[in-house]
Write a structure and sequence with these properties.
Number of strands: 4
Largest sheet: 4 strands, mixed
Structural class: mainly alpha
Bound molecules: zinc ion
Radius of gyration: 24 Å
Shape: globular
Strand content: under 5%
Order of helices and strands: HHHEHEEEHHHHHHHHHHHHHHHH
Distance between the termini: 28 Å
Number of helices: 20
């Protein structure tokens, strides 16, 4: 009996311990942000000036227009606190870049690194040399070598000046049509309305998508990136492992939510669970069987490009065909990975993806991970959903059901959310918000 009690006590202590030791990333970085913006604006202006003197006539003016749009949008993102300016990521990433720089004189000296509040495993380099690394990269990758691989690939783009080349290509081919400009405008407006899609990303994707050169550029960046990577001291095969890992990423986690999880979380003292909430909309209009095969797969991600990139790398660098044991992540890496995982909900909340936040919090709670923490976030997101529902703008924060593009589990979730009445949402929000004050007062 005593032993059982001690075990239970230890368990409780450890759970409480974990919740208490997690310190959210400091966002009181006003000065750093201001300083960064000042430098960025100056840099971008001189970059545009340079472009104007290098490229005359329409090319020059179109290019400066594009870079101005880039700049304004990026500045808005900075003001919107989409980036974190001081965090435990800084030192670790700095030392990682140093490791890459050691035998690679081509790696630029003046890299400024920003951490983005973004759960997608990605990194990119801006024209002025600012390197953006998404938190999601740390959450998704297994070790620092895989992160270094992604950074190397981006350095490949940077060294070859791919962004500039693509922009120039578009301008010269006169493909920057009105629709692209319209697209930027629309997405910028959308964002101010609270959508998470960033004009900057869309423009970037569009530039690359429009370019027939896209795959060629990716492979070039892979090759150059791999040379940088192999000159440093990381395990070579991790470059490929990293690409394979990226291939398995889904924007929405494919982890299935069980019906019991809904019952466990939403059968409240004041509001019993109602089976009607789980009712699914009739989509017989859609040819369901046609999509069934796709839906039954664990993952809806498709990255056909990646296969080809891996193949090409293995062909160019035969040593990549030899499989090695994967590198063990360092303690420092695991700590950052943990931070990135704990920041998933704050990041969704920041980008106002309240519906997605609830879905992901429920997934964590299904696995009984950090219960207090995720119940808090469940309450916070539900209170935002309540506000939105009251103002009739829920569709800004909660996806519509699209049988073609969503897993069955996510569709079930959306049905559940759309089935809840205003009062029911309020009760759930109140219940989990009350839960929050209990946690806080502890
Ligand atoms: Zn790339």
């Amino acid at each position: 009996m005593t032993r059982k009690l001690i075990v239970l006590m230890c368990f409780l202590l450890s759970v409480a311990g974990i919740s208490q030791t997690y310190k959210a990333i400091d966002t009181a970085d006003y000065l750093q942000r201001k300083e960064f913006l000042k430098n960025f604006t100056a840099h971008n202006e001189s970059l545009i000036k340079g472009l104007r003197s290098k490229y005359s006539g329409r090319t020059g003016s179109e290019m400066s227009k594009i870079y101005k749009e880039f700049g304004t949008d990026f500045e808005n993102q900075v003001k919107n606190k989409d980036f974190v300016f001081k965090s435990e990521f800084d030192a670790v990433i700095k030392s990682l870049v140093e490791r890459l720089r050691k035998n690679n004189p081509k790696v630029p000296q003046d890299l400024k690194i920003l951490i983005a509040r973004d759960n997608t495993p990605n990194a990119y380099c801006l024209a002025d040399g600012t390197f953006v690394i998404n938190m999601g990269l740390y959450n998704w990758m297994d070790n620092e070598a895989q992160v270094a691989g992604v950074i190397s690939h981006e350095l490949g783009h940077k060294i070859e000046d791919h962004t500039l080349k693509s922009v120039l290509n578009i301008v010269e081919q006169n493909t920057l049509d009105k629709s692209t400009v319209q697209y930027i405008k629309e997405t910028t407006d959308q964002r101010s309305l609270g959508r998470n899609e960033k004009a900057f990303d869309i423009l970037k994707n569009r530039i690359y998508k429009k370019s027939v050169e896209k795959r060629k550029l990716e492979m070039q960046a892979d090759n150059l990136g791999y040379v940088i990577f192999k000159n440093s001291d990381f395990k070579k095969s991790e470059f490929i492992n990293g690409l394979q890992k990226l291939q398995t990423f889904d924007t929405i986690s494919p982890r299935e939510l069980k019906i019991e999880t809904y019952k466990k979380l939403f059968d409240l003292p004041k509001q019993a669970f109602n089976e009607k909430w789980m009712k699914k909309e009739d989509f017989s209009l859609y040819n369901y069987n046609f999509y069934k095969e796709k839906l039954n797969k664990d993952s809806l991600a498709s990255h056909p490009e990646m296969e080809k990139r891996i193949e090409s790398l293995k062909k160019t660098f035969p040593e990549l065909n030899i499989s090695e044991e994967s590198e063990k992540p360092s303690e420092a890496y695991l700590a950052l990975k943990r931070t990135a995982r704990m920041e998933i909900l704050p990041n969704y909340f920041h980008s106002e993806d309240f519906g997605l936040g609830i879905y992901v919090a429920m997934q964590f709670l299904q696995d009984s991970e950090e219960e207090k923490y995720y119940k808090n976030w469940l309450g916070k997101c539900f209170s935002k959903i309540y506000e939105a529902r009251k103002k009739y703008n829920l569709n800004r924060y909660l996806d519509r059901i699209e049988p073609k593009n969503q897993s069955e589990s996510y569709q079930q979730f959306l049905n559940f959310m759309w089935n809840l009445s205003l009062d029911e949402i309020k009760n759930i929000s109140d219940y989990y918000q009350a839960n929050e004050t209990i946690v806080k007062s502890k």
